[in-house]
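Appendix B. One record, verbatim.
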Amino acid sequence: MRRVIAPDGRVVLGELNRWSSWALIRRVKGLVTDTIYNRAHFWSRRELECLLRRNGLVPGAVRIVIHIPPIRRGAFLKRARIVDDLLRRLLPGMGAFIVVVARRRSDDTWRST
Protein backbone atom coordinates (compact mmCIF):
# COMPACT_ATOMS: atom_id res chain seq x y z
CA MET A 1 0.00 0.00 0.00
CA ARG A 2 2.76 2.41 0.88
CA ARG A 3 4.35 2.03 -2.53
CA VAL A 4 1.22 3.04 -4.45
CA ILE A 5 -0.04 5.82 -2.16
CA ALA A 6 1.03 9.32 -3.12
CA PRO A 7 3.02 11.25 -0.50
CA ASP A 8 0.48 12.54 2.05
CA GLY A 9 -2.04 10.12 0.52
CA ARG A 10 -4.40 8.05 2.63
CA VAL A 11 -5.60 4.48 2.80
CA VAL A 12 -8.65 3.09 4.57
CA LEU A 13 -8.21 -0.40 5.97
CA GLY A 14 -11.13 -2.49 7.23
CA GLU A 15 -10.77 -5.74 9.14
CA LEU A 16 -12.75 -8.15 11.29
CA ASN A 17 -11.90 -7.38 14.93
CA ARG A 18 -10.04 -10.17 16.71
CA TRP A 19 -11.89 -9.40 19.98
CA SER A 20 -15.43 -9.41 18.56
CA SER A 21 -18.17 -11.99 18.98
CA TRP A 22 -18.23 -12.23 15.17
CA ALA A 23 -14.61 -13.44 15.05
CA LEU A 24 -15.18 -15.77 18.01
CA ILE A 25 -18.09 -17.47 16.25
CA ARG A 26 -16.01 -17.92 13.10
CA ARG A 27 -13.15 -19.47 15.10
CA VAL A 28 -15.56 -21.85 16.88
CA LYS A 29 -17.14 -22.88 13.56
CA GLY A 30 -13.62 -23.60 12.33
CA LEU A 31 -13.21 -26.17 15.08
CA VAL A 32 -16.06 -28.32 13.75
CA THR A 33 -15.94 -27.72 10.00
CA ASP A 34 -13.42 -26.75 7.36
CA THR A 35 -13.94 -23.09 6.48
CA ILE A 36 -11.77 -20.31 5.14
CA TYR A 37 -11.72 -18.94 8.70
CA ASN A 38 -9.53 -21.87 9.81
CA ARG A 39 -6.67 -20.11 8.04
CA ALA A 40 -7.73 -16.52 8.74
CA HIS A 41 -5.92 -14.16 11.06
CA PHE A 42 -8.13 -11.65 12.83
CA TRP A 43 -6.42 -8.45 13.89
CA SER A 44 -6.86 -6.21 16.91
CA ARG A 45 -6.75 -2.43 16.74
CA ARG A 46 -3.29 -2.35 18.26
CA GLU A 47 -1.98 -5.00 15.86
CA LEU A 48 -3.31 -3.10 12.84
CA GLU A 49 -1.74 0.15 14.02
CA CYS A 50 1.63 -1.60 14.58
CA LEU A 51 1.43 -3.29 11.18
CA LEU A 52 0.81 0.04 9.47
CA ARG A 53 3.68 1.74 11.35
CA ARG A 54 6.10 -1.10 10.53
CA ASN A 55 5.28 -0.60 6.88
CA GLY A 56 5.87 3.14 6.83
CA LEU A 57 2.31 4.40 7.25
CA VAL A 58 0.99 6.69 9.99
CA PRO A 59 -2.27 5.47 11.55
CA GLY A 60 -4.88 8.12 12.15
CA ALA A 61 -8.60 7.85 12.82
CA VAL A 62 -9.85 4.47 14.06
CA ARG A 63 -13.47 3.38 14.35
CA ILE A 64 -14.77 0.14 15.79
CA VAL A 65 -18.32 -0.52 14.67
CA ILE A 66 -21.14 -3.09 14.75
CA HIS A 67 -21.26 -4.08 18.39
CA ILE A 68 -24.35 -6.27 18.12
CA PRO A 69 -23.59 -10.00 18.13
CA PRO A 70 -24.39 -11.98 14.97
CA ILE A 71 -27.92 -12.99 15.93
CA ARG A 72 -30.52 -13.30 13.18
CA ARG A 73 -33.70 -13.31 15.24
CA GLY A 74 -36.28 -10.77 14.07
CA ALA A 75 -37.21 -9.54 17.55
CA PHE A 76 -33.54 -8.96 18.37
CA LEU A 77 -32.84 -7.18 15.10
CA LYS A 78 -35.74 -4.79 15.67
CA ARG A 79 -33.87 -3.55 18.74
CA ALA A 80 -30.41 -3.77 17.18
CA ARG A 81 -29.72 -0.04 17.30
CA ILE A 82 -30.48 0.14 21.04
CA VAL A 83 -28.35 -2.95 21.75
CA ASP A 84 -25.52 -1.70 19.54
CA ASP A 85 -25.47 1.72 21.26
CA LEU A 86 -25.42 0.09 24.69
CA LEU A 87 -22.65 -2.39 23.83
CA ARG A 88 -20.58 0.34 22.14
CA ARG A 89 -20.57 2.24 25.44
CA LEU A 90 -19.95 -0.81 27.65
CA LEU A 91 -17.45 -2.65 25.41
CA PRO A 92 -15.97 -0.04 23.06
CA GLY A 93 -13.16 -2.21 21.67
CA MET A 94 -15.27 -5.28 20.94
CA GLY A 95 -17.14 -4.23 17.78
CA ALA A 96 -17.12 -6.57 14.81
CA PHE A 97 -15.29 -4.35 12.38
CA ILE A 98 -12.25 -2.08 12.70
CA VAL A 99 -11.66 0.75 10.24
CA VAL A 100 -8.29 2.53 10.29
CA VAL A 101 -7.35 5.54 8.18
CA ALA A 102 -3.59 5.76 7.64
CA ARG A 103 -1.45 8.13 5.64
CA ARG A 104 1.90 8.16 3.98
CA ARG A 105 4.03 11.02 5.25
CA SER A 106 4.70 13.75 2.68
CA ASP A 107 8.46 13.51 3.36
CA ASP A 108 8.48 9.75 2.67
CA THR A 109 10.19 8.75 -0.57
CA TRP A 110 9.65 5.19 -1.73
CA ARG A 111 12.60 3.36 -3.26
CA SER A 112 11.84 0.03 -4.83
CA THR A 113 14.61 -2.56 -4.44
